[in-house]
Amino acid sequence: MRILYCILAALYLLSGCKKAYIQFGDQFVDNGYTNIVLVDTLTPVVSTIFRDSVVTSNSGIMLAGMYKDSMFGTIKAKTFFNLAPPTLRDFSLSAHYDSLRLILKCNGSYYGDTSTIQTLSIYQLADPIQIGESQSSLYNTSDFPIQTGAIGSITRRFMPSDTSGILVPMSDALGQELFGLLSQKADPVKDITSFINYFKGLQIAPGPGISNAVLSFRDSIVMRLYYHEANPSPVNEYLDFTFNNQAFQFNQIQYDRTGTVLTLLGPANREAESTLTNNMAFVQSATGLEAKIRFPTLRNLLQRPDYAQILKAELDILPVRGSFSGQYPLPPELDLYSTSLLNDPLSPLTIAQAGGLAQVQNGNLQVDWLYGQNTFYSYDVTTFLQQQIAISDNNKNGLLVQPPSPSFESALNRMVLGDSRNIKDRIMLKVYYISIQP
Fold this sequence. Notes:
The chain is mainly beta. The chain has helices at about 1-15, 170-185, 190-200, 380-390, 405-410; strands at about 20-25, 25-30, 35-40, 45-50, 60-70, 75-85, 95-105, 105-110, 120-125, 150-155, 165-170, 200-205, 215-220, 220-230, 235-245, 250-255, 270-275, 280-285, 290-295, 305-315, 335-340, 350, 360, 375-380, 400, 415-420, 430-435. The strands form six sheets. Strands 5, 6, 7, 8, 9, 10, 11, 12, 13, 14, 15 and 16 form a twelve-stranded antiparallel sheet that branches. The protein has a five-stranded antiparallel sheet with strand order 17-4-19-25-21, with no helix packed on it. The two termini are about 35 Å apart.
């Protein structure tokens, strides 16, 4: 009964209809002069941040393909990686090479339209994948030259839900060459270092013709060499060249934003307020786009004669209707990071859990697939705004909107955020403060 009484009392307090006791630390304010006031007119300022490079190595995800997005432009993805040689074995004199295949396994994700036929091409690298002396990772802008001509390709309708494995036919000339080295136990296939010096690595890229999707694969990729031995009885065998070293696998992601409002952004202009981009801000971290939310009118609360303290603050981010679909999915999670004028992510927004543990807020995405009118990410920004209202100088701090890792580096899910002027869907900030009447 006591627990029920406490719950009812709390609801009664937050309703804002009646006055009640409010506690500040160890002191109470007279209940005859206190109230809770809801303010939803503190307009957040929204902008899009551009980063010219994003780490895409060591993600466990391989992206390949291309699609045209009316809002984000043309997106093209290639993946680069190394292979390790198989354990050497003895071959009989009757052993004969049969074929070479690259085996890809979808991870269920895709971006764009997979209902049409498209081509993926495989190229051999001309130089080994390396990380620069001043770097620790590889980026969406990294590149390494390839040898002339594809050594494998496949044209088909890809089914992202089929995780059984896609066999890509590879060059028989290459297969015969590798089989010869393996049968002779030659130096290039004796260890990983020697093999990478000989076989620099592979690139998977969208092939010629129409491509309407970027496909996502697991990095458990295998190049399988099939052969058979005839004596003493016919036996089919194979050897696997396996994926090697996540640190040297990365996704190159290129984009052409011609014809979109995002052409405003680039190395010379790394931030654009939503008023310049049709009252929208854009999030697609793997192509360098993040949204920033600031609260420049927050200190207007201090001008209210009854204002005492922010009690609670809620922020709802509403993706613009029509900007997301099955082909263009929303990020399942979006984190908020505090940031300064420099737009570097600082600490994530957290919320206290039972036992005093702090949990990073991911937005708790709610999707209204039926009507499309009630899709939103929701956050408790109480602590953040309590800190920001105490800053008296020209406050340029804000919150960066970005997906957590590894989605940040390896997913093309995107979100279009409507600002306070957007006629379809608007960002919403609700601030509850303690009012003390004189």
